[in-house]
Amino acid sequence: METGVRILLAFLLHQAAHVGGQEDGGSEGCVPGFQVKNYEVAYSGAFHKGQPLIQVEFDDCAGNEDVAFDVSDPSFLVDGDLNLVPRQDVRYSAPVLFVHGVSAHADDIAQVDVTGLPLPSAHALRDILGLGQKLPYRSKRSLLVPPVIVTENQRPPFPRIIGRFCVISAEKLGNHIFRLTGPGADQDPKGLFTIDIDTGDVSVSRSLDREAIDSYQLEVSTTDFSGNLIEGPAILMITVMDQNDNRPIFKETRYTGEVLEGSPTGTTVMTMTAFDADDPGTDNAVLRYNIVRQSPDKPSPNMFYIDAERGDIVTVISPTLLDRETLPTTRYELEIVAKDMAGSEVGLTGTATATITITDKNDHAPEFTHPLFEAHVSEGSTGVVVNLTVDDRDDPATGAWRAMYSIISGDPAQRFEIQTNPDNNEGMLSVVKPLDYESTMFHTLYIRVENEDPLVPDVGYGPSSTATVRVTVEDINEGPVFFPDPLVVTRVENIPVGSVVASLSATDPDTLEIQSIRYAVLHDPAGWLSVSPVKGTVNTSASLDRESPYVHDNRYTAVFTATDNGIPPATGTGTLIIHLEDYNDNAPYVVPSVARVCEDAHDMNVAIVGGWDKDLPPNAAPFKIELGKQPGLDKTWKVTRVNSTHSQIMLLHSLKKANYQLPLLITDSGVPPLSNNTEVKVQVCICKKNKMHCSSAHSHSASPLGLLATLLLTLLCL
Questions:
Q1: Which residues contact 156 (CB under 8 A, 6 or more apart)?
Q2: pLDDT at 427 over 60
Q3: How far apart are CA 34 and CA 332, in angstroms?
Q4: Where is it found, in Gene Ontology cellular component terms (predicted)?
Q5: What does the pLDDT read at residue 140?
């Protein structure tokens, strides 16, 4: 415990070495703090209680109100006249004293050097430490290494002594030297601190930066001249005292925030935050915020307030005045200053800009610019007929401004529709179903407009949010209209030329006028029809053929026109569809035209053939297929019916490999029936292993003589 007390007292004794001197010199205007940084007091014996030693010069540039002074040696004080005086009789003093002056506007340190002090003996050092007879006798030396405080940013000249260490011993001194080791001495950053090997004075060789390194831990020891350790090592802590040399810095130069119009007073908009690299344990890093400029400054230069300590920007303006539609602008710029030293006049400042946007709420209903809109549209046309205009004071970039239109009455047949033009918010009223002048000359529509976003609770849609649209239908000469369209009739093909097919009927929609109508053929693909210009009677001018390529699915289509005698004339078109019934006017034929059988009657000696007819049932199948009338064919060939459309040809005995023309007779089932004599090429082939080898030579006639010769040749070969 005694050792701890002695170290503490030694720290108090050497506290003068804790703070380096402030830079000398002045500048234009008042500089808060000590006007003279260094003072000197000559020691000529004991300092007596109340004896003025020096008068310090301190000015905080604000009248020196509430200035407080502390002296590193508590045996001294600074009185009201700024005199440094002892509190009591002081026999011994530290070689350096520090005077700390502080007020709301200044914070500074001055150094007082005490000259002429005698070298302290062990007895005197005990008196300085105030231990009296309590200091026990020791025969060994004791190394005193008090901590040191050095102010950053000192100016030359260098090196500067910042502390002195000594050895307390009852023995004769002089056989030791001091050594200093550690970061800042013999380690990086090397050479920053040095020690006088004889006196133990520690010096700093250049200016320090607390924001780079805020403290240094070194070791002090003593050795003899041969390098043998005598005392130590003892820890030397050098603390760098902060100066206010860093301005507050905002992370960004420009900040943005939003506040909804009509917000209550005191609504928080955003928070500004700046940072100061100085010591957070001192006022050097204590920040205060302030708004120094608002642009524009209408309707009030103090629409916003910033919490000095937290940096919260809140609204000051009343909710009524915070109206986006009546304010001169929707964007306000605030210049924010952050000042350290807790906002005192000597503090350093940093600046940023806060841009606040007044956002919109839907507190204005859209209103039509006119209660009545008029439109004129020609009958039979479609498209936009009128653009409805509205006013809305809300923000055009939001759903509080964008309009939605609806037809609330006057359009039971849904002939109209209304859409919003996204570019100008106008309502585009369109006709989607053609209007008829003769039916209704006027249409009266009632239109309502609303916003995409709902209105705020205390605002509603008024009468101006509805409007009337009067649409006048203008008469035009409309073309005659066929009825029915298409006209469908059924006729049998091949009716006599000149037969009546249909009677066209077209009426003129312009019922308020008396007009005549004339008919004409517009499109008659096969050229089969003609029409009476006045009566509209359609007659055949050629035979109707159901099997024609112009007929599809038994239907023939022609188009006719009806033209009135209006000014100018108008034309309408109508379609005639003739459903053609079949007449047995096409004989059937056998397919395929080539059939194959094997020469050996015991192999594949059967071929299948079928009938084909362009006509429809019952004028087609079932078909009757039989051998031709030539005598003797039935000795070699036989035709047997398979089904209603196909029959099989059978070879009754072996024939020589060759091609034979076989006459067949095919008859359809029409009334009266139609027959067709045709020949089928029958190839008699050699069949081996399921393969047929047929002749490519010309066909032989299947006449009785030819067949007889073939039969005799075959019998001779057996």
A1: none
A2: yes
A3: 43
A4: adherens junction; catenin complex; cytoplasm; side of membrane
A5: 46
Cβ–Cβ under 8 Å, residues 452 and 425: no
- Give Rg (Cα) of the chain: 61
Nearest to 279 by CA among 349, 209, 217, 337: 209
Residue 204 near residue 258 (C-beta atoms within 8 A): no
Which pLDDT tens digit goes with each residue over 498-507?
A: 999 999 999 9
Let me know: does 459 contact 361? Beta carbons within 8 Å. Answer: no
Structure tokens at 22: 């402030």
Phi, psi of 685 (to 5 degrees): -120, 160
Question: CA-CA distance, 674 to 666, in Å (whole number)?
Answer: 9
Decide: 485 and 572 in contact? Cβ < 8 Å. Answer: no
Residue 708 predicted with pLDDT over 60:
no
How far apart CA 206 and CA 184 sit, in angstroms, is: 11
**Cα angle at 6 between 74 and 240, to 5 degrees?**
65
Strand bridging mode 367-368 / 416-420: unpaired
Express each pLDDT in 224-256 by its tens digit: 888 889 888 899 999 998 889 999 999 998 999
Give phi and psi for 312, each to the nearest 5.
-75, 130
Distance CA 408, CA 404 (A): 12
Give the largest CA-CA distance in the chain: 175
Give the Cβ contact number of residue 387 at 10 Å: 13
